[in-house]
């Protein structure tokens, strides 16, 4: 959904029935909560029936309530503040055991990501990584954790991998100043999208480099610059961003790259194991 739906609800408000006005006013005032309510729960919140809520969605031009709910979620995901996310989290989990509630939502994110996996794009991403002269990885805010994780493993396979620090835009330009047509930028960002990552993509694109975007969907601003986009499902659980689905996508990508470069990976880890043993990096007598 975009702002047109809220505007449309406001415009139609005078001609709605009494029950429809209750639904409309709740959505306009609490759209961040309504986006994650079932039709039954939304109806209960304003004392109307579930069927009335469904009819309201149809009245607004949707095939049913799930379509309107998805539109609301699309509208808010890049707009909610951390405090609003906390409020949504409390509303969604409700009386459910908090641990079970969060873990079940994470399970659902991975399941929904699996449903949208594009194997051809994964294979294209692997080929691009293997062919790149240099690989730059960038992610800001919570996505910086994803970037660090990916960098940690890819640098064990290649000696051409650079982690671009999640700093100001000017500093990012300096770290990527030598990026060119034979190079690759792997950029990752999820709502709320980091401006520095968008600008890194813009800069890499202008310099002719290949770009792989790891993000949440076609509407992400990263896809405008990316040659290949890999999607992972996300939504707001709390002020803490859930990274389980993006991490799974990155795991899959690393596994495919490793498999395609098996001989080098085996040599690298054989040497690393000897070094780790000699330096007693891991405790073995447990």
Nutshell version of this structure?
The protein has helices at residues 3-12, 18-29, 31-34, 39-46, 50-59, 65-76, 82-93, 98-115, 119-131, 143-154, 169-175, 195-206, 244-260, 262-279; strands at 135-139, 161-164, 184-188, 210-215, 228-231.
Describe this structure as you would to a colleague.
The structure is a single chain. By secondary structure, the chain is α/β, with parallel strands linked by helices. The protein folds into two domains: 3-76, Orthogonal Bundle (Arc Repressor Mutant, subunit A); 114-279, Rossmann fold (3-Layer(aba) Sandwich), CATH 3.40.50.10490. 58% of the residues lie in helices and 8% in strands. It is built from 14 helices and five strands. Strands 2-1-3-4-5 form a five-stranded parallel sheet, with helices on both faces. Helix 12 (195-206) links the parallel strand 3 (184-188) and strand 4 (210-215). The longest helix is centred in the middle third of the chain and has 18 residues, at 98-115.
Strand content bin:
5-15%
Q: Could you say how many structural domains there are in total?
A: 2
Q: Indicate the radius of gyration in whole angstroms.
A: 23 Å
Low-pLDDT sequence parts: none
N-to-C span:
54 Å
**DSSP, total strands:** 5
CATH superfamily of the largest domain: Glucose-6-phosphate isomerase like protein, domain 1
Oligomer status: single chain
Order the strands across the largest sheet as they lie in space. 2-1-3-4-5
